[in-house]
Amino acid sequence: MSGTLEFYFDFSSPYGYLAAQRIDALGEELGRDVIWRPFLLGAVFKETGSQPLLGIPLKGDYARLDLERSARRMGVPMRFPDSFPFASVAACRAFYALEENDPAMAVTLAVALYEAAFGRGEDINKPENVLSIAGTLGLDLADRLGLPEIKERLRHEVEGALNKGVFGSPFFIVEGESFWGHDRMDDLADWVRQGGW
Amino acid sequence: MSGTLEFYFDFSSPYGYLAAQRIDALGEELGRDVIWRPFLLGAVFKETGSQPLLGIPLKGDYARLDLERSARRMGVPMRFPDSFPFASVAACRAFYALEENDPAMAVTLAVALYEAAFGRGEDINKPENVLSIAGTLGLDLADRLGLPEIKERLRHEVEGALNKGVFGSPFFIVEGESFWGHDRMDDLADWVRQGGW
User: Fold this and answer.
1) B62 contacts A50? CB cut-off 8 A
2) What is the average pLDDT across B64-87?
3) Chain A residue at shortest CA distance from B165
């Protein structure tokens, strides 16, 4: 491995869900360790004055169609949860509660959470939903989810994302170069293969 | 030709400039007549609550870098005019003043205006700038730019774009299917070739 590929996403981001379906394969293809970094887009939107995508007039309607056709093209299911957009604090905390000791399992959990939310349209906003999905993987996170050090870790990650200029989801950084959007993953790959432009 | 490919753009949009560099070649490749449709993004932003891209914290910095690397990759010059974003009413009116009688020349003028603005960083916000660039093509539009029917035509086009759900620049519609963004031109091409997904 000659470096890392940072993958920033919010669990409430449907384009993040699509990116999560192929990011590990892309990292392997490019010879990069993928570092999964869930964060809270809401904190970033306060900086940028943005709002949740699907609620924006015109743009929201387009995004819904584009998400559905992008999912069809990739052959992955796409279904929106009833409560959308949703708070992803519990999902993020669960990820970081696992990540320090078992990063591979944290990624497995992230994929399971995303597939619940956008593959089957389940609500993952509440801690009990997240704990229940963790339970299907044999994980018991009930004691860790509310720990002060986990809350602090998430705050630290959100701040770190902001400091790196991350303003959307999904967002990728490789060799200091930023790429925003699920639709830029091929560009990112070309950029790495060609050694930049 | 089995149909049209509508190309919506604002003359003040640097991603529209990049799209304009390859849209006609793409149309030819796909066997579609490209219909150039300049409009005023400001009118749309009132509907969507959006703001000019490069002024948005974090996102604006990224967009500038992304525009420059995208232009490098395409091998086209990219230089921002001093006054940016700028009003593109005069440029739009000049386009529509020509388009009814000579659509090919209107496209030639659009390309010339874009290359002045983002290839050489010239101001094209004022009517006299636009007339001067038209002059280099042997066109005298001085009498037509302010005609009530030209103003009305532009209003009509902006309204038409809004009614079709156009919310950004560049924006493409082919067979009723919408694609937003310079970075979706390859997707659009795949969509047409594969008969949709």
Assistant:
1) no
2) 95
3) A58
Q: Answer whether B57 touches A (CB < 8 Å).
A: yes
Residue matched to tokens 């609550």: B49
Cα distance from B27 to chain A (closest Cα, Å)?
A: 21
Helix axis angle, B103-114 to B89-99, nearest 10°: 160
Average pLDDT, chain A: 96
Q: How crowded is the C-beta side of A113, counted as CA atoms within 13 Å?
A: 32
Question: Which chain A residue lies closest to B61 (C-alpha atoms)?
Answer: A165
* Nearest of B123, B51, B55, B50 to residue B86 by alpha carbon: B123
**Measured CA distances, A23 to A35, A109, A166, B33 (Å):** 10, 15, 17, 37
A38, two tokens: 């869930």
The pLDDT of residue B51 is: 87
**Number of residue pairs across A and B with CB atoms under 8 Å?**
71
ipTM of the assembly?
0.92
Report the predicted TM-score, pTM, of the whole model to 2 decimal places.
0.95
Predicted pLDDT of residue A2: 66
Alpha carbon A109 to its chain centroid, in Å, reads 12
To the nearest whole Å, the CA of B193 is away from the closest chain A CA by 13
DSSP string, A114-136: HIIIIIS-----SHHHHHHHHHH
